[in-house]
Amino acid sequence: MKNxxxxxxxxxLVIGVISALLVFFGxxxxxxxxxxxxxxxxxxxxxxxxxxxxxxxxPEIIGLVLGACIMxxxxxxxxxxxxxxxxxxxxLAVFAMIGCLMFLGCPxxxxxxxxxxxxxxxxxxxxxxxxxxxxxxxxKRGYTLKRSYKMPALEGQLFPVLQIVFLxxxxxxxxFIHFSTEGPGSLHASVWIALAAGLIVGxxxxxxxxxxxxxxRDAVLFREWKLLMGFVAIFASALAMNLILGAVTGTxxxxxxxxxQPVAHTDGLWNALGMFLAGFGCVLLGGCPLRQLVLSGEGxxxxxxxxxxxxxxxxxxxxFGLASSGEGPTSNGKIAVIIGIVVVTVIAFMNSRKKxx
Amino acid sequence: MKxxxxxxxxxxxxxxxxxxxxxxxxxxxxxxxDNVTAKxxxxxxxxxxxxxxxxxxxxxxxxLRITK
Lengths: 357, 68
Fold this sequence. Notes:
The structure holds two protein chains of two kinds. By secondary structure, chain A is mostly helical. Chain A contains 14 helices and two strands; from the N terminus they run αααβαααβαααααααα. Chain A is 66% helix and 1% strand. Chain B has a single domain, classed as Translation Initiation Factor IF3. In chain B, a hairpin with a 2-residue loop joins β3 and β4.
């Protein structure tokens, strides 16, 4: 196995272990990491939505951006760039988030849900893969959001700096920041453990280019398996760690089944359609929500706009009653996912050109 | 010699452009990219297709010379 493949498998194994440990240290079950959920919680903490059970400034997000930022600065890869269709990216991100919140998780959490025995995530995975195929179809037809340009250094630094502001708000906890007292938002590992976990995973993901969407995409497009190996490694190590933690603590961390899974619902069709929208949207965005956080830490302001779009999407999803709950999807959510699939398809079509070069 | 300017584009686009270019079956190609990920991905793809790749740094860009 080549060095970079070894590296991404090793990183995936470490990330799987950290993800399982975060649940042990207090995160919601099967939610060691969930970029969609954590951005949603942070948006709620800032008062962008008022769902009382999902409000908390997640230090993992702060750590992921800063970990990637530090790693990129050390290796000289930090470059401020942007200007590649930011409004289109913003819209795509809003709908990708609506898809994630239909399913109740980003692609990263989908892997962790599978590793925790949540069978509903199998439907999510099928939809996710189909969404990626849809995106690849347009990539092959020449889909592009056109090139980005060099930006002033400060432009690239602002988003990482914003994370430090979030950390200060989290620690200082002023009255205008909302913190859930019950529900998933109230369940979290301690600030410094979560921050450290984010920093490590952010650094590893930057170094290895880990991306949940890129794995299947590159395998289909180029028969290139590197990124997919990272995806599989996370699954394998989170699964193994869940079994070990279950044996050591006496509380099962691996609970195979469909009904009663934590922060999940059993509507297979809408689990699949939600992740179809997320997978499709993320291919058009060039990477999964985790990858967008990492890129935003590298100075990519298009990705920073994407992350802001994800946060706004989360706020919209809760303000308009689109997000699913343990009871299942909402009718508003179903309509929004259908609209999302239509909008994303139109964006894909309008930005595709016939192969001329 | 075929030239591909993939500056400003992020993966997978530079790799798709390279793949399309390689289909023209010329003896040599030059691909210009401006980020390390694209450099790595194009290099990996071309090597897997049986090409030799030489990387030359040009300021903030990378010129990849691809030959059979």
